[in-house]
Amino acid sequence: MSHVIVSGANGFVGRALCRALIDAGHRVTGLVRRPGGCIDGVTEWVEPGADYVNAMNAWPASLDADCVVHLAARVHVMNDDTPDPDAAFRATNVDGTLRLAAAARQHGVRRFVFVSSIKAVAEQDNGQPLREDNRAQPEDAYGRSKRAAEEALVRLGDESGLDIVIVRPPLVYGPGVRANFLRLMDAVWRGVPLPLGAVEARRSMVYVRNLADALVHCVTDPRASRQCFHVADGVAPTVAELVRSLARHLGKPSRMLPVPASWLRTVGRLTGRSAQVDRLIGNLQVDTSHIRQTLGWQPPFSTDEGLSATADWYRSIHSTHK
Where is each NAD-dependent epimerase/dehydratase domain found (predicted)? Predict the structure, then answer.
């Protein structure tokens, strides 16, 4: 049994990871900025300081952990109005991450699992699923900050001996999901016609419980040492297939218009939203062969099972707020 610290333990992915760790017999301490929100069985360490400025000195004297899984981050948003997005993302996702990693190393933690993002590599796959050794070409402040954090952590690991493991998920979905995936579900639920019927792009995703399972492997498996892994579900649906599956699980008709991708790109240029359109209609598949071959990992849940659970949660929320 290991003792694992999970930053962001009261968040969407954090709660799923804590459940998976506890079910596997591990002790879990949740590093959070505000008390509350963690699942039963998690011991909370509340550290309200921004970007872990006090992590080194505020580390509880009795906290002896084997591994830190770092989930907390400044997250990607589509319309960021911060005057200097790169600086804002870097302050949290690079500087804050390094402070926590350095504090962990100083206090005897042996492994630091950093949950990065596929956006640290690219927004599209250019015809071949993205591998861990692809040349990184992040396109926005969020992706650049995640890539910079990866590089800085590797240097810290080389210098200090801290075992750095990097995990890059694509879009994460499941009960409790927010942002664009939730907006897509809202549109399907309301019967909004979507111009996605002709979009054949395939987009890798990962069900939150599949990601949690992969992270448990990265916490405990000696073979994960100093590795970088791409993690995703077993299949990458097209955008149209995703909408049809969501509609089926929600018990709603899928209302899609077969608008050619070229038309959508034109609309994107005219409205100044080319980047958003390109992300929607471009292929983004990830190659997960490295984690499968190195750790013997397989996603325990199919995409259909994940979408079904997500739809069940959505319907329960909708019925509660009628």
Answer: 4-226
